[in-house]
Specification:
The complex is a heterodimer. Chain A is α+β, with helices and mostly antiparallel strands. Chain A has five helices and eleven strands; from the N terminus they run ααααβββββββββββα. Chain B is mainly alpha-helical. The chains are: A alpha+beta, B mainly alpha. The interface between A and B is large, with 76 and 91 residues.
């Protein structure tokens, strides 16, 4: 079983609130949903923010429904059966991506069947189409042990969720389930640690900005 | 019609706000719908929530007829999924908000939905609720409601714009003529205050 208590890096409250409000772009929504599937504390926080949404909904100025709305509602309801589904208890405790997992619809054949594209020695990626109505980029990045990503900052915001392995950077040590919620004030150069490749799910809303010449030279090739 | 609801409900507990009484009533109606498919109870839920969902959708730019149609669709999801409503996890308002929100996201053609279905049973078990989180959901909502309405108006407004008008942080900044950092810090302060009032800040 997964030890939830090991997660030590969480999304910022305003990021969880934006998720609850439904205002995150699709890419970041997927990253947060995946973190939530691993983090009970953050699920509780999202629930509070959803309750805030409920209170806001109560306070919305009502706009009268069309006269026939209720009648037409019951017509529609009449032809559709109520759901008899009852909750079954399954545990999505690893990235085996059962059908209900937030990532499952994006990775049809699971995480081990991904076609990685090498972008630099020890570094490969897989871009996931996630073009919601707000722009954002979703990708998986695989960093081999001992490989360091060149120092960079972010145009706006970046969410990085560790799915496998671990890395360390200026912010701290990150392992499976940990999420780095970074903005343009953070400059970092993550180094993959441990014995297996580090696989991260990353959502960016703008291109990364590399701080070093090597980074800027590498950037066009990495496509970050 | 809504006035009657509030008046009917304030009798037994004079210290509670009309909003809380209405919210309690909505919870028990939804429980009836969940248990027995009670259509009368559902009609009252419809009368309260459908016009508010319509108002919510119109605020974010849906035309009146589309908003009417989507509000019906949201209520259809409420009717069909009512058996999944778990009053120990969310109030009726919260649950219906998440349904309307997800419908809006779907309608905005984020086709493969990233939103986590709050009723999705495949999630890991949650931590034991913290001591103060064991207060009932109704009391919890009441505290959230009280904390929300007690916020300074600048913080109240950014939250309203965020949750109801579906503005991103940078859209709120543009709308109010503020720096992005100011919007974020107002949201953060508001959330800290609300969570502090709930008494279960997770550290």
């Amino acid at each position: 079983m997964t030890s939830l208590s090991k997660i030590s890096h969480h999304p910022k409250p305003e990021t969880l609130a934006a998720y609850a409000a439904g205002s995150l772009d699709e890419a970041r929504g997927v990253v947060i949903a995946t973190h939530l599937s691993l983090c009970g504390d953050c699920r509780l926080a999202v629930r509070d923010f959803e309750a805030l949404g409920g209170v806001c909904l109560e306070a919305v100025e009502p706009v009268a429904m069309n006269e026939s709305a209720l009648a037409s509602f019951w017509t529609r309801a009449g032809v559709q059966e109520r759901s008899g589904r009852t909750a079954s208890k399954l545990a999505a405790n690893d990235f085996e991506l059962d059908a209900a997992h937030p990532l499952a619809s994006y990775l049809k054949d699971g995480i081990d069947s991904i076609e990685w594209r090498a972008v630099a020695p020890g570094l490969s990626q897989h871009v996931i189409p996630a073009e919601g109505y707000r722009p954002g980029v979703l990708r998986l990045l695989k960093i081999n042990p001992g490989v360091r990503i060149p120092k960079h900052t972010h145009g706006d915001e970046e969410l990085t969720l560790i799915l496998r392995g671990s890395y360390t950077d200026e912010v701290g040590d990150f392992a499976r389930g940990d999420l780095a919620d970074l903005d343009n004030e953070v400059i970092h150069a993550p180094l993959a640690t441990g014995g297996e490749p580090c696989i991260c799910l990353i959502a960016t809303s703008a291109p990364l900005r590399f701080k070093t010449l090597v980074g800027r030279v590498v950037q066009p090739f990495i496509g970050l | 019609m809504f006035g009657n609801l509030a008046i009917n409900m304030t009798g037994d507990s004079p210290s509670r706000s009309p909003e809380t009484a209405t919210a309690d009533r909505m919870n028990s109606l939804l429980i009836k719908v969940a248990a027995d498919g009670d259509r009368e109870a559902f009609n009252v839920l419809f009368a309260f929530f459908a016009p508010r969902i319509k108002g919510y959708l119109m605020k974010i730019g849906a035309a009146a007829d589309l908003a009417d149609d989507l509000a019906q669709e949201a209520m259809l999801r409420v009717w069909r999924k009512a058996r999944l409503f778990d009053p120990s996890k969310a109030s009726a308002s919260t649950w219906i908000f998440t349904i309307a929100r997800n419908l809006r996201i779907d309608a905005a053609r984020r086709a493969a939905k990233p939103a986590l279905d709050p009723n999705e049973p495949t999630l890991l078990p949650e931590h034991e609720p913290l001591a103060d989180a064991k207060i009932g959901i109704a009391a919890r909502d009441e505290r959230i409601r009280a904390a929300f309405s007690a916020l300074p108006s600048a913080q109240y407004e950014v939250i309203r714009l965020h949750f109801i008008e579906d503005m991103t942080h940078s859209e709120i900044a543009d709308h109010l003529g503020l720096a992005l950092g100011t919007v974020k810090s107002r949201l953060r302060l508001a959330f800290e205050k609300i969570r502090k009032d709930l008494g279960d800040i997770v550290e």
